[in-house]
Design goal:
19% strand; binds zinc ion
């Protein structure tokens, strides 16, 4: 699966929630959230994160079609809401006043910390069947292994109008041990008839007893017949299920045609635990089986499945039934089916696979880029892995409502529209990169994940780490001129290190014992750290790395694997680096089983370098430093004598030392390929800063990325004073490379964010002056220039620099952007894709209600998913109280704002202090409704909590937040702990650095000018 993001945004935030291709250091989270919502900004690659693993999702429908009872409940809610609205208005006004007069806002807020919802504890209880009071015959979270499924035949008759389906599933299985019960996963099904038969025999037994365990989503059937070891059986289940707009299981999605007609389609999303919501099954990745399907449809619709249609017949009532061939052996979470009126374009790869892109009929013209990319990358992967794609066809489908970015169902990959459709007229270069990236990611899963699947979710990184690496590798193979790998260290490595700098992170391979933990595994560690470790291993081992990976894929094809299987396969191929399998095994083991990111402290005295490794964490005021082990760190360094050719050393001990010749500077972690931070001593920093100020291009762009990260992180933790960090940053006036710049703006943004949250308005104004001063030369070199005169990287930089300067309220930037807005609004002149978000946000900055209303109407009426995203993420940045409350209400209604966009709306609402405070309050008040849409451990919920809490900088409020999480029974969750820790880290930073920076700003303010050169 891949995450969702808003590709057009500048800078990233890379809280842990970051997904693929994001930028930014931990710092960034905050950075996004500029107070003046109005301000345009740089919320780069991400965030809008959405939920991914949709487990336990809504068991009833969402709000698109409310029932009578929901309506009456909602009326009650609305009354309650209006009541709270009054208090909310009071706080809002209070806040604004306090911002203006420079007071803290806490007092105002604290008077309104009223009622939390009643406690709701989610601890696993003993499984009892609620209807009979009988204990459930199996008390484990994971299924018993006494029955092994072989194949499923699924029959589905969906009724999209009545929002339900009739179904039958027949499962052939064998008994590995004698047992009384057949135990399956199932959620939300009503069973009409269940019978057990013998394979190859007509004998049948109807079910005698049915017991449910709702905690573990299991059902147990007992027949008048013991199931004997070694026998083969068939269970046939006739049942009903409901179709909802829940984004999980078998669910509904709707869209508007250009002629205004609304169309509803049926589609699926099963990873991680939602196949059980569509049909009863052995819903664990290791229970692989073959699946076939028969599906009833209206004659005007078509159906899709993992395999092609074998036959179509007439069905009762003038309907049709499509029968599909059987899949290869695979896990339940990879099954998918769709019933829709979509159209397709197709082509055949060199390897003979028929590739089709499906979309709603009005968007079929935007599928061309995806079709070419998919064909090319599928061929390239077949060659690289030397294993043919085993299915006859590969469909890629753009689904209007989709929680994640995309999902790798075998042969039927589903995408958000923004991750698959590309229109050269309205998509930016970053939008295009995003489409290519997601296709490369999902198609690599056809091998990593689909062909060889992790045994259990604790090794999810085997799927997602590889796919997150392959998304770069794949794009680079097809579009080498894009130089896509250049962004890897600024985006993926940075995002990984952010989460890994917390004491509440986890190792790549990590025990998973309940469904919430499964959801939490879909995080920056499994994705970004997984990819970063693969990058480092490949660099260390060389080409043999892929030989080992090929062996791993071959050996475990159509089966499951664990972390150790990969370690063994890769280690066996590493012949030249060390010659000793144990060395490489120990190295990979350390990186996959130790939590955290190491920092290597380097000191240079005379000609002797001393290095010492330890675990890096940001100080949060506590003394809780978890125990750690020793990493096997592939150290590399370059010097002025050999600036591009690295010297290598393997650090397996806590500390070590070695001699170097006399050098003018020495830079560690060449190209930031190693997964570690570097802490230089003061003298070494001085040497590096001098070189940067004289000629920064002596260092590669990736080395500059690495220096930027290490310098700003050193400043944050007090190892480099901020005066020196700003001296370092002055080189940025000459920086013209994309990756170093986006990372630098992210780090600079952290300071801005802290000044904002700490209500240091005067310092913030000076800081804006400082940052715009640094970037003025680049702004005038690139901003608003004609596309055709710029290279691809310059184009990426162009939108980045424009967005940045507008976000720091650089007047010439805001004026030009707003003129473009007026031209769009008044004369219907198209806004260039590269600037669209900046232009919308400049209008928010301008703060006219009529502009806001115009954008809202455009949002409601557009059928273009990209435009819709860009509008929503801008209008949410308003500081207008009525509009903030209106958007919150709209989010709950779910009619104009799709539930897939809820978390991105909340992210933009928290971009300023007015919206931030109101939104955290709103989230607490409507917690139960929001977690129905986005399960508590989902990506969306993690993002919502993080962004709400990042507007806090007060110990008292953390205590309040902790009490709230406790009342919801989620105070033990890792992401909750990480978020609270992050707030404490911010508080520490503010205490230690805010006034020092304030003084520095005041001393230097008069030397900064941002005039046109
Ligand atoms: Zn994935």
């Amino acid at each position: 699966m891949s995450w969702h993001r808003i590709p057009d945004h500048e800078n990233s935030e890379e809280d842990e929630t970051i997904m693929m291709t994001s930028v930014g250091e931990d710092d960034t989270t905050a950075h996004l959230l500029r107070e003046d919502a109005s301000v345009v900004h740089r919320r780069e690659l991400i965030t809008n994160i959405n939920n991914m693993s949709l487990r336990r999702r809504l068991r009833e429908g969402m709000r698109s079609r409310p029932s009578l009872s929901t309506l009456s409940k909602r009326a009650k809610e609305e009354r309650k809401y209006k009541y709270s609205l009054v208090s909310v208005l009071v706080i809002g006004i209070c806040l604004i006043m306090m911002v203006n007069i420079g007071l803290g806002y806490r007092k105002c807020e604290s008077t309104n910390e009223e009622m939390y919802h009643p406690p709701e504890i989610h601890k696993l209880k003993q499984c009892i069947d609620s209807a009979t009071g009988l204990p459930f015959p199996w008390q484990n979270y994971r299924l018993p292994t006494n029955l092994l499924p072989e194949d499923y035949h699924i029959f589905l008759h969906p009724n999209l109008t009545l929002q339900k389906y009739t179904a039958q599933v027949a499962i052939n299985f064998s008994a590995d041990k004698t047992t009384d019960y057949v135990i399956l996963h199932s959620r939300g099904h009503t069973f009409k008839r269940v019978q057990l038969g013998f394979q190859n025999s007509k004998e049948k037994h109807l079910v005698k007893q049915t017991l449910h365990c709702s905690n573990n989503e299991m059902v147990a059937f007992k027949f008048g017949q013991v199931l004997n070891q070694g026998q083969n059986y068939q269970i046939v289940l006739d049942f009903y299920g409901n179709l909802t707009f829940s984004l999980g299981g078998f669910y509904l999605s709707k869209y508007k045609r250009n002629n205004g007609k609304e169309v509803v389609i049926g589609t699926t999303q099963f990873e991680s635990l939602d196949a059980r919501a569509a049909f009863p099954c052995f819903d664990e990745p290791a229970f692989k089986a073959n699946f076939s399907l028969s599906m009833v449809r209206e004659p005007s619709f078509k159906t899709l499945f993992n395999m092609p249609i074998e036959s179509t017949n007439d069905y009762e009532g003038g309907l049709k039934i499509d029968n599909f061939g059987s899949t290869v052996k695979m896990s339940t979470y990879l099954v998918a089916f769709i019933v829709s009126d979509f159209q397709n374009v197709s082509n055949v790869t060199a390897g003979g696979v028929e590739v089709s892109i499906y979309s709603s009929p009005d968007k079929i013209s935007e599928t061309e880029f995806a079709l070419k990319m998919a064909c090319d990358v599928l061929d390239a992967y077949e060659n690289l892995f030397n294993i043919p794609f085993p299915l006859p066809k590969m469909d890629l489908v753009a689904v209007p409502d989709f929680a994640a970015g995309a999902m790798e169902n075998w042969g039927l990959v589903t995408y958000r529209e923004t991750a698959l459709l590309y229109n050269p007229a309205t998509s930016s270069i970053k939008d295009q990169e995003w489409v290519a990236t997601v296709i490369a990611h999902e198609l690599s899963h056809q091998w990593f994940g689909n062909l060889v699947t992790m045994e259990w979710w604790n090794d999810l990184w085997l799927n997602e780490g590889f796919a997150s690496y392959m998304e770069y590798y794949g794009v680079d193979m097809i579009h080498p001129k894009w130089k896509f790998f250049a962004d890897f260290s600024a985006t993926t490595v940075t995002a990984a290190m952010t989460q890994d700098s917390s004491q509440f992170t986890h190792a790549l391979s990590f025990p998973v014992t309940d469904s919430r933990k499964v959801d939490e595994m879909f995080d920056s560690i499994s994705y970004n750290k997984g990819a970063s470790i693969i990058m480092m291993l490949k660099d260390f081992i060389g080409d043999e790395f892929f030989d080992g990976v090929r062996d791993y894929l071959m050996k475990h094809a159509y089966g499951n694997a664990e972390n150790q299987d990969l370690v063994a396969a890769v280690a066996a191929r590493d012949t030249d680096n060390n010659g000793d399998i144990q060395v490489i095994k120990a190295m990979i083991n350390a990186w996959t089983t130790l939590a955290g990111v190491p920092i290597v402290k380097v000191t240079l005295k005379d000609n002797k370098v001393s290095v010492e490794q330890s675990r890096f964490m940001y100080p949060d005021g506590s003394q809780n430093l978890p125990e750690t082990g020793l990493w096997h760190i592939p150290l590399t360094y370059v010097t002025n004598i050999s600036p591009q050719k690295a010297t290598r050393k393997l650090l397996t001990q806590k500390s070590s030392s070695f001699d170097v010749p006399k050098v003018e500077w020495i830079k560690f972690n060449h190209n930031r390929v190693g997964y570690y931070r570097v802490a230089y001593d003061k003298g070494m920093w001085n040497m590096l800063i001098n070189q940067l100020s004289q000629d920064h291009e002596v260092f590669s762009a990736s080395d500059r990325v690495s220096l930027i990260s290490d310098a700003f992180v050193a400043a944050r933790v007090g190892n480099l004073n901020y005066q020196d960090a700003f001296r370092f940053a002055s080189y940025l006036q000459s920086e013209k490379d994309y990756a170093p710049l986006i990372l630098a703006t992210t780090h600079l943004g952290y300071i801005d964010e802290m000044l904002k949250v700490g209500l240091k308005e005067e310092q913030r104004r000076m800081y804006e002056k400082y940052v715009t001063y640094i970037f003025t030369p680049l702004y005038y070199e690139l901003a608003w220039k004609n596309k055709t005169s710029l290279s691809r990287m310059q184009l990426k930089l162009q939108s980045t620099i424009v967005s940045l300067m507008c976000s720091y309220k650089y007047e010439p930037c805001l004026t030009t952007a707003y003129a473009k807005f007026r031209n769009w609004k008044e004369n219907n002149v198209l806004i260039e894709a590269e600037y669209m978000t900046t232009v919308f946000q400049s209008a928010i900055h301008h703060n006219l209600v009529e502009d806001w209303d115009f954008m809202w109407n455009a949002f409601v009426n557009t059928t273009d998913a990209l435009l819709s995203n860009k509008l929503l993420s801008s209008i949410g940045m308003t500081t207008n109280l009525q509009k903030i409350i209106f958007l919150q209400e709209e989010m709950l209604k779910g009619e104009n704002i799709r539930s897939q966009s809820a978390s991105s709306l909340i992210v933009s609402l928290t971009s300023n202090m007015v919206g931030g405070s109101l939104t955290w309050r709103f989230v607490k008040q409507h917690w139960d409704e929001i977690v129905k849409l986005h399960p508590v451990a989902s990506f969306a919920m993690r993002s919502i909590v993080l962004h709400c809490l990042t507007t806090i900088l007060d110990e008292g409020e953390i205590v309040g937040a902790e009490a709230f999480f406790k009342s919801k029974g989620i105070d033990d969750m890792q992401y909750v702990k990480r978020t609270l820790e992050k707030v404490r880290i911010n508080i520490q930073w503010f205490k230690q650095h805010a006034s020092v920076i304030g003084k520095w700003l005041k001393q230097n303010e008069n030397s900064w000018h941002s005039d046109r050169p």
